[in-house]
Amino acid sequence: MVIRTEEVIGELNGQSVKLVRLSNNNGMEVACLNYGCTITEIRVPDRNGVIENVVLGFDTLEEYIKHSPYFGSVVGPVAGRITNSSFIVDGVHYQLPSNEGKHHLHGGPNGFDKVIWDVGNVEDESILSFTYEKVDGFAGYPGNLKVTVTYQLTNDNELIISYYATTDKKTVVNMTNHSYFNLSGAIKRDILSHELKVASDRFLPLNDSLIPTGEIAEVEGTAFDFREGRPLEDGVKSRHSQNLLVGRGYDHPLILSRNQKEEICLVEPQSGRKLTIETDEPIVVLYTSNMMKPTFTMRGVEANKYLGVCLETQHHPDAINHSSFPSIVLDEDEEYKTTTAYRFSIE
């Protein structure tokens, strides 16, 4: 049995901001805001049964608004960077607002992470449903886009995130969740000793703006080879030009070689916590918070590099500007559907 609680914790632009918490029979809890569908906590046990939070976040709405580098949020309509904040669909040029130099990042300054979503009524207490309707032209994107995101907590200690969208005008969609995981619990340690295993033979190199060049590189013989598992620290120590480019670490799309078969596994050896991710998406963007600076605190811990690792399942970043990448165009008669499951266990 999953128990759901809900409370209003603030107001933004005349709309109520709600904190909703799901709790299962094992003591696992998932807390989230309808502001950006933001996951604020995921509480799971370690090998000694100690239940702690394993994602980065804040205790107040004000901190999320002022400081958050997309902690736990749903980002979109398009995750990642879009070159020169522009794209062309059916010969029509669309200019988006820039929020990272001349480029557009994670839906821009008014992306899905910064809006209030409606909390839907679902009979099944284990499912939390968020809906949002983006009007045509908002944030520069074409089409009236109707979006639903659901979070489901199971008694197998699994969080299942599903995304669904329809449009009345051809547009682009590529959403993901931007949680920063730290399986040590309560940010007791950084994530460099976390061991990551990914079913991926290839990755996408980045240019100086951290946007895919369009090339596809083999992971063999590099710090991007996670097929047998390796500590994240390897990317910090690596002299590979791509690891150095992103500030020593990772901020790269890994192309998955299989789906929904334990393709991503993250383990923190000291706590014994393990996260297994299964998805129908072709890519996981691995980011080791290389750019995080000590300009704010998170629940009493000063922000810094390598305190969280993001595993963003999605389509290829900047796909709309690379004809060789799988399309992220959504037509009027199509449905955007994708699901990613996060299962927590002990090793």
From TrEMBL:
Supply the CDD domains for this chain: galactose_mutarotase_like (cd09019)
Which residues make up the binding site for beta-D-galactose?
H178, S179, Y180, D251
Pathway assigned to this chain's UniProt record: Carbohydrate metabolism; hexose metabolism
EC number, UniProt record = 5.1.3.3
Name the catalytic site residues.
H178 (proton donor), E312 (proton acceptor)
List the keywords (alphabetical). Answer: Carbohydrate metabolism, Isomerase
Sorted alphabetically, which Gene3D superfamilies does this protein's record hold?
Answer: 2.70.98.10
Please write the reaction equations for the catalytic activity of this protein: alpha-D-glucose = beta-D-glucose
| Gene Ontology annotations of biological process type | galactose catabolic process via UDP-galactose, Leloir pathway; glucose metabolic process
State any single GO MF term: carbohydrate binding
Source superkingdom? Bacteria
UniProt-listed InterPro entries: Ald1_epimerase_CS, Aldose_1-epimerase, Aldose_1/G6P_1-epimerase, Gal_mutarotase_sf_dom, Galactose_mutarotase-like, GH-type_carb-bd
- Family the entry assigns: Belongs to the aldose epimerase family.
Q: What is this protein called?
A: Aldose 1-epimerase
- Source species: Alkalihalophilus marmarensis DSM 21297
